[in-house]
Amino acid sequence: MGRLNLKLIIGFIMICLFLLIAVFGPNLSPYKVDQLAEVKYISTEEGRKLSAPPFPPSKEHIFGTDQWGYDILTLLLHGAKYTIFTVIIVALLRVLIGGAIGIFVALNKNPLNTPTKNAKMKINIFSSFPVFIILYFILIRINIEPVLNPLTLSIIVGSLMVILGVMSVYDNVYSKTIELQKNLFITASQALGGTRLHIAKKHILPSLKRQILIIFMNEVIQVLHLIGQLGIFNLFFGGTFLRMDPPVFISITKEWAGLIGQFRSTIYYYQWILFFPLLSYLLMLLSFYLVSQGVIQQEKVNQRKNPIL
């Protein structure tokens, strides 16, 4: 009996939990998203004292409150859907579009897709150019105090992330498909008159399914990193609201990277405010990383069992 793939199992369970939080989070939140903790008086040895936010973790507020009195657990539960669904949908579209184009191009062997050195250099330069820089100069104009609603802005930003990330997936799938076509079972299928669609469905996709899953998990991690980088520069996914006196950038959608960027200055005074959004973000990163490593581990086991394939 083979050993249990603990990385894959633990990562899969964690992702399922995050998906449940994304779907049911607002219904599970202990407070309304716009509800403020009340300023109250507490009894001490020195008499009654005024107690005001931020409140540390307690029975009333498990994760504590921020400096304005908003419950941090409530913010996380309401922002989960924007964080989790965004990274999954963007990564999925990157893989579907880039993977389909990569397989199609490799099977057709179009001369345009076996480029000269100059053309190949252009493709490599484009695919390696930092996506963050392009997004930064676009979002700096439309993301702070946006005129668009959060859903529309999220769709625009998500579409940009998909478009700018397709090329890397294409390069990856294309090279793997080219290598795969050198196998005898594909050569035999071509010799027997198998169409490109037949070869793609019966040979390429089944052979690449684990590789594509690994690419998907890696794309999810890359999108999470990208959203985190934008958050550090106050470009929060779904829009940024500027609160004056003192100036503070606030995430409109409460997505987790936005909360990290919004609360990063509290690390010196009220650490719990930053700790819980940061922990949630890192645990989500870990879950996809574990699944990716688990699939890689399983792929190595399968290759040892079937070295020819």
Strand-helix topology:
Elements: H1 6-28, E1 40-44, E2 47-51, H2 72-108, H3 117-128, H4 131-142, H5 150-180, H6 184-191, H7 196-232, E3 240-243, E4 248-251, H8 256-263, H9 271-305
Antiparallel strand pairs: 1-2, 3-4
Helix pairs in contact: 1-2, 1-9, 2-5, 2-7, 2-9, 3-5, 4-5, 5-7, 6-7, 7-8, 7-9, 8-9
Describe the protein in words:
The protein is mainly alpha-helical and 309 residues long. It contains 9 helices and 4 strands; from the N terminus they run αββααααααββαα. The chain has helices at residues 6-28, 72-108, 117-128, 131-142, 150-180, 184-191, 196-232, 256-263, 271-305, and strands at residues 40-44, 47-51, 240-243, 248-251. The protein has a two-stranded antiparallel sheet with strand order 1-2. Helix 2 runs parallel beside helix 5 (150-180), helix 2 (72-108) runs antiparallel to helix 7 and helix 5 (150-180) crosses helix 7. The longest helix has 37 residues, at 72-108.
Q: Give the C-alpha Rg.
A: 24 Å
The total count of strands amounts to 4
> What percentage of residues falls in helices of 4 or more residues?
55-70%
Helices and strands, in order, run as HEEHHHHHHEEHH
Order of strands, main sheet, comes to 1-2
Class inferred from helices and paired strands: mainly alpha
User: How large is the share of residues in beta strands?
Assistant: 5-15%
- How far is the first residue's CA from the last residue's CA? 22 Å
Query: Roughly what is the average pLDDT, rounded to an integer?
Result: 86
The number of helical elements comes to 9
- Which residue ranges are poorly predicted, with pLDDT under 50 across at least 5 consecutive positions? 116-123
Shape: elongated
